Structure formats: C-alpha cells, structure tokens
Prior knowledge:
Elements: H1 2-14, E1 35-39, E2 43-44, E3 49-55, E4 67-69, H2 100-103, E5 106-108, H3 110-115, E6 133-137, E7 145-154, E8 160-170, E9 190-196, E10 206-211, E11 221-224, E12 230-234, E13 243-251, E14 256-262, E15 265-273, E16 293-302, E17 311-320, E18 325-329, E19 340-342, E20 344-348, E21 352-356, E22 365-372, E23 382-386
Parallel strand pairs: 2-23
Antiparallel strand pairs: 1-3, 3-21, 4-17, 5-6, 6-17, 7-16, 8-13, 8-17, 9-10, 9-16, 10-11, 11-12, 13-14, 14-15, 18-19, 18-22, 20-21, 22-23
Amino acid sequence: xxxxxxxxxxxxxxxxxxxxxxxxxxxxxxxxxxxxxxxxxxxxxxxxxxxxxxxxxxxxxxxxxxxxxxxxxxxxxxxxxxxxxxxxxxxxxxxxxxxxxxxxxxxxxxxxxxxxxxxxxxxxxxxxxxxxxxxxxxxxxxxxxxxxxxxxxxxxxxxxxxxxxxxxxxxxxxxxxxxxxxxxxxxxxxxxxxxxxxxxxxxxxxxxxxxxxxxxxxxxxxxxxxxxxxxxxxxxxxxxxxxxxxxxxxxxxxxxxxxxxxxxxxxxxxxxxxxxxxxxxxxxxxxxxxxxxxxxxxxxxxxxxxxxxxxxxxxxxxxxxxxxxxxxxxxxxxxxxxxxxxxxxxxxxxxxxxxxxxxxxxxxxxxxxxxxxxxxxxxxxxxxxxxx
Length: 388
C-alpha cells in the first residue's frame, strides 16, 4: 500500500504544471495584411502593459504617438508639460468677473468647474476611466473667439498622414443667437476643427470643419466651407453630450483625403482634393518648431463669445503623424466598431507591438484589438476582455 501511494504521488507530480492561459491563435497567421496571432494577456487592465504578436504590422518610428493626453498622468495643470504647443486664445480677460485663470485652459473635474462660480454647468467625465479633462472658456471679445488645443507639426513636408482622436463636449449652458442671455446678436459661427500653415489658427491658408446649430440640438450637422459642401450629415449634439471624434487625413496639395468619424460612424469621406486648401505656400510662421509647419487645432472658432458659459471640454487626446495605430473596439471588425479607443504603443516591429492599455469607454465587456498599418489597412478583430 505504501509503495502504491508513493508511485501515485510521483505520477501526479510529474504531470502537474503551472497553470497557463492559452490565447486564441487564428488558423492562418500568414496573411498579406496586418494579422494578430496572440496577446500576452486575454484580460486587459487600464494602464497595464500588453504585447501583441502577429505578422505584417509594418513599421512605426517612433513607436509612441506625437500626443497622448488623458489628463490623469500629470500633477501639473499646464498642458505644456505634455510636449506639444497648446493654445487657448485670448485667455487674459480681466475686465469681467472671471479671472484669466478661470477661463484659461486647465485640467479640471466637473466639481472644479462648478466651483469657479461661472455660468458654466461643467460636464461629467466622458467615461469611468477618465479622471480629468482639459477645459477652458473664451472670456474676451463679445463677438468672436478662437480657442482650442493646438498641436504644431514643425519641419514637415507634404505629403504626410495624420490620425487624431479626441473626446469632446461643449457646456450645456452654451449661449446661442436669439437667447436673451447672449450679450451680442451674432450668427452662431462655430468651427470644431481647424488646421493652417502657421501657428495660431491664422493661415494662410487654413481649412476648417464646422457644426452649426441655433438651439444646440435640432440642426446640428457637419460641414466644410473650404470644400463647398455646405451642411452635411447630422451629427451628435455636443452641447452637454460627449462624442468621440476621429480624423484620418492625408495632407497633400493633390490627391489629399479627409475622413471624419463620430462615435465610429463616418460623417465625411473626401478624396482627391487639396486637403491643405493651400495657395501653394508653406507655413513659415512657425516659431521654434521649424519651417514649414502646420497648426492643428482641436476646438477652433466660434461666435458669440465673452461668456464663461462658452466652455469646451477635451479628453483622451491622441494625435500622430501616421496612420499606423492599435485600436481597442467593441465589434469583431474595425468598420463596425462604434467605440474605438487608441492604445499607446511603446515598441513596434513588423511582428510585435507593446502598448499601454487605454480602456477608455470599454469596461467589463468583450472587446477586440485591431492593428492598422501605415496604409490604414486594419487587421481583423482579436477578441479579448476589457477589465473594469
């Protein structure tokens, strides 16, 4: 009996192994496009590290994006600590009840916005993983305001590609033309995104996309007065509501393209155009960033202004001068995903990518990873679980 027990113990010991998680591997990992074969963890944790293995990922150098700003990684309230030029125009109003520090761009919570005692209602966070947003209000000119987050591409030559992603919202107390509270009767000129061949949203030349509404909801739409398109398809009302906006752009004098996505739905797809809307010149008003340059504004221009209710909110800002990226979404294909959260790469080769996980709006649910290469060809979704 003793011998049998000993033999059984040895047998069990020989076949006992450390538990391992086996990740799904596609049957064919040798396709012509980007293909994810395995991941280092099937359950993703926000701010955790993940390694993605596969084929045909292409190159991305540097691996990190130009800008990744989730508002929660810096103790400072200064956006300049994040390595890009961030401009909030006309911040120095001292004539009214609000100081320039109240109106100027800072990282804040909704409680901190309300505590300013301004006309703004503030916004809750866009999702549970967001702790602060970048917010500011235009408090200077009563008739016009140009404000937003500007990123400068210095020392660049055409053509080049850009991918931009941001959560954005506008204060629910925003004042519109025709409302008694508005100090000046103007025309609700509102431009949501702007670019130019100079610093400061000035051009020349510049292109911009706008959304116009007289009441904050009913007539909201996307359009562009630089491409003679007039008012375009309806979009999400951003006054008191968050929306995730992404731009996939090829900047070129000829053969340029601009694709706009709102909450995963394509709103515009413009191809074969001068996407710079240029006059043949290059940006020379570039400060220390190097010529030629392009100014990239998330925010833009609006009327009326000079009210602390005219407050904008931005979160999870991702900007890069390449289409190569890793996205976490909520559908098995990139095209059908309505939530598309950029992951933050730190290492990138044709067969392996390491990212810091950004769950964004995804939480405790099935999710899918996609790798897109520099030509904007995206892999099939690789199923994972988004943690809480």
